[in-house]
Structures are given as structure tokens and as C-alpha cells.
Amino acid sequence: MDVKNLHTYFYTKAGVSKAVNGVNFSLREGEILGIIGESGSGKSVAVKSILQIVPRPGKIAEGQIIYRGRDLLADKQAIGQVRGKDITMIFQEPMTSLNPVLTIGRQLTEGIRLHLGLSKEEANQRACEFLKQVKITNPEELLTRYPHHLSGGMRQRVMIAMALATDTKILIADEATTALDVTIQQQIIYLLKELRDRLHMSIIFITHDMGVINEIADNTAVMYCGKIQEYASTYEVMKHPRHPYTEALLKAIPSIDAEQQKLSTIPGSVPSLLALPEGCSFSNRCTQCTDRCREEEPKLIRLEDGHRVRCWKYDGQGEVVDS
Question: Which residue(s) pair with 87 in the sheet?
């Protein structure tokens, strides 16, 4: 899948909020792409735009989402054919995604019967198979239960099984481990990686946790104010960050090596998406800011090693890949 020049805006009485403001990325088969950023950076809106489930008053203003040669934004029939089947999504809190008055079995088999055309008995059998794949040992009994009977980790496993049961090719996980304790979070990460390897699917993993991204993602895109600021392999982003924003995020992570350590913070606050600054959107918080940064917005540059960064420090050192 290729996402090209994606713009998603929210048209409010106060003005136009540019939540996603020209995002480009590609997803290869079998790849886990991490998208990281603070709350309000546009990462969740970007992936909801892929499935065209942006809440009102949001609207996709421009761009292309190319999946297997078809533009999901231009072809109105295409999105209905792939949403919930080829491309599926799980959310941060599965309790809000699952219907509290319907059994797990009813909710699991609904999508299977809709997309695969199976009978009720066949759908139940397939649901049990995928519940076993997500390490649930008593799937037949679980199908008769309601969401409130399950723990947070079990509900998230059900959501993953629901996504996989229609033979999904791309799984979008939006803060899928944030509401879970650390032990269950680790189990879900291992489960997703195992399923990726076994089923050869691709995953887009959204989070604000650098540690989680380091555990799961092959490549990472760092978002801020609706734009990708840095894009490279996860190892390069973690070990050799190029953008001042990424550097600041990494410095804010506590280290187990230091007995007493004062955590670094990022000064200032995220600018309003209704009134973004003239130049670099991070300029009001950047300790390396120059006059040019305040006056002119930098382009996303691909350096010789493939690392992409949106910063004037690297002007002239690589090829401009987007605006």
C-alpha cells in the first residue's frame, strides 16, 4: 500500500484544523510500520483516513491511497470491498469497540459471514480456529460470553481474532496496547509479531510509546503537527535520530543505567492546528532553531543512507521527496 500526499482536515466554526497535512508512506508485505507522535500529531487520523472512517467534521481533502493498484479514495466501491476484510483495524480500548449486549460469538461471526459467505456453523468453526491462533484455549465457551466477562487483554485478543478471521492483509493497530498493563502489553506485542510471521500480513502500529515501537516495528515514521518529520528503520530512528523532535522524545525516556537522573522535557507546547506557524511546526520548541526555521517550512529530505528527515540542518544533503 502507498499513501501519497494525504490531507485530512477538520472544518470547524473556529477554522480549518489541518490534522493530516501532506503525509506519504509505503507499506510492504510482511512489514510492521510504526507511527509515533504525541497526542494530536495526526497519526490516528492518518490511519482512519485509509479506511475512510474519519469522524465528522473531518474530511479527506486530498491524496491517494493505493492498495493493490486501486486508489481507495477515487474508487468508491473499492473501500467497501476491502474495509473489514483486506484491511482491518483494532483500537485502544476494545470495550468501546465490542457491543456490550451481544455475545462474543455473534460479533466474531458477523464479519466472517458477511465477507466470506459462510454458514452460521462454518463461521463459528472459523471463529474458534482464530481464537486458538490468538492463544485462547477455550474458544467454544468464550463464544457464549459477553465482553464484560473478559479482561482487557482477552478483549484485545478477541479484537485481533476478529480482524484476522476475514483473511486480512493489513492490520492497523491504533494504540492497541496502551490500555493494558505492561505484562499483557508484552504478550500482545509478541502475539502480533508471531501472527505477522505466520500469516505474512502487514501491520501499521500507532503509539506514543517509544519503547513499544522499538519492540515491534521494522520501520518508524515520527509525526508532529500532521506531517512526518522523520522516517527510517526503527534501529536508525532509535540509535541515530536526525530530527530534533525525535531526539527530544528519546531524551525524555528514563534510563535504568542512571541511579539519579533528571528527565529531559520538551519546552513549550504543540501549536494549534488551526494556526500553524509560518516555518517549521517544531520551531517554537526546538533548541536548535534558526531564523530560517521560523520563516520557511523545511522539506522532507532523503539522505544517502535512505533516512528521511524534515529539518533545515540537512538542506542540500539529499533528495527532496515531498513538500
Answer: 83, 170
pTM: 0.92
Cα–Cα distance for residue pair 117/274, rounded to 1 Å = 46
Tell me if 32 is assigned to some domain: yes
Question: Which of 9-18, 33-42, 108-117 is predicted with the least confidence, judged by mean pLDDT?
Answer: 108-117
Which residue range is the domain that position 44 belongs to? Answer: 2-86+168-254+262-322
pLDDT of residue 96: 73
> Can you tell me the distance from the alpha carbon of 15 to that of 24, in angstroms, rounded to the nearest whole number?
25
- The angle subtended at Cα 265 by Cα 262 and Cα 270, nearest 5°, is 170
Question: Are the beta carbons of 49 and 72 closer than 8 angstroms?
Answer: no
Q: How many residues does the chain have?
A: 323
d(CA 209, CA 217): 12
Cα 252 from chain centroid (whole Å): 21
Q: pLDDT band for position 268 (50/70/90)? A: confident
User: For residue 218, with 0-12 CB atoms within 10 Å meaning exposed, 13-18 middle and 19 or more buried, which class applies?
Assistant: middle
Q: What percent of the chain has pLDDT over 70?
A: 98
Please check whether residue 186 lies inside any domain of the structure. Answer: yes
